[in-house]
Amino acid sequence: MTQRSGSGSTSLSAAAKVVGEDTHHPGTVAVVGGGRLGSVLVQALRAAGYPCSGPHPRGYPGEPGDGIVLLCVPDAAIASAAALIRPGPLVGHCSGATGLSALGSRRGFSMHPVMTFTAQTSPDVLAGTAAAVAGTDPPALAVARDLARRLGMRPFTVAESDRTAYHAATAMAANFLVTLESAAAALLRTAGIDRAVLLPLARAALENWGVQGAAALTGPVARGDRAVVDSHRQVVAARTPELLPMFDALVVSTHQLAQSHPDETSSSTGTTQ
After folding, report:
1. CATH number assigned to the domain with residue range 164-266, chosen from the 4 options 3.40.50.1000, 1.10.1040.20, 2.60.40.10, 3.40.190.10
2. Pairing of strands 130-135, 108-113
3. Is 265 helix (H, G, I), strand (E, B) or coil?
4. d(Cα 105, Cα 113) in Å, to the nearest integer?
5. Cβ distance 128 to 152 under 8 Å?
6. Which of 25, 121, 156, 176 could covalently link to 117 via disulfide, CB atoms 3.0 to 4.6 Å apart?
7. Backbone dihedral angles phi then psi of residue 175, each to the nearest 5 degrees
8. Rg of the chain on CA atoms, in Å
């Protein structure tokens, strides 16, 4: 894991200043919530050399040695979990959707890794991952930034007024991608072909989009090949009719994207996809 980088950042000892602990040691980082993210963060914190306890169950009130209590609980449980923590430690949560108001009158922060987690996720995945941070005041924000950096992440701030838009975008990027690929796999199964053949294609398309943006768009919709698009629609309607509304909506959105970036997409439509 990487150590703090960049000038002007405040050490995690800022947590001590906020909560009144020894200024050279922020105390234990107590993680509440043993789900996917909580389990990964406990491993990552220990690997980074932090005194860390947990994951604790919801309802954990905090211990005298805690400098930070980090809530990795569902959004609906953040406010109640924060309310149960005794005075003293700085309280943080790891939600992208829930604002700092869920912490009540507590001083604290949020730190949301822009990453998807599964039961098999390694703590190494945090290295290089972006993390959205916010704080109830500058010292709390500094703690969130430094914690993210020390776990190898790249922190950036999100205003409370932009939080919902930010989180909706991350949900679209991660969750809807799985929905889309699952739909493609369902159609592919009707031809007796395993979904694994789609993975290199999907990875390449995503990587190309990361570099080129809209210029990465290829295929019959971008080319304006209506006959091919119509044949695709017919087979979707015949074999997976439940996917037809999604297909139609995506054709419209893809066409609009191609039309709004004609110079970009026209230079990248020579592939067979």
Report:
1. 1.10.1040.20
2. antiparallel
3. helix
4. 24
5. yes
6. 121
7. -70, -45
8. 23
**pLDDT 10s per residue in the chain (273 long)?**
333 333 333 334 444 444 333 333 457 899 999 899 999 999 999 999 889 999 999 999 999 889 999 999 999 999 999 999 999 999 999 999 999 999 999 999 999 999 988 878 888 899 999 999 999 999 999 999 999 999 999 999 999 999 999 999 999 999 999 999 999 999 999 999 999 999 999 999 999 999 999 999 999 999 999 999 999 999 999 999 999 999 999 999 999 999 987 655 454 444 445
Between CA 56 and CA 54 the distance in angstroms is 4
Range(s) within the chain of domains with CATH label 3.40.50.720:
13-158
Q: What is the pTM of this model?
A: 0.81
CATH topology of domain 13-158: Rossmann fold (3.40.50)
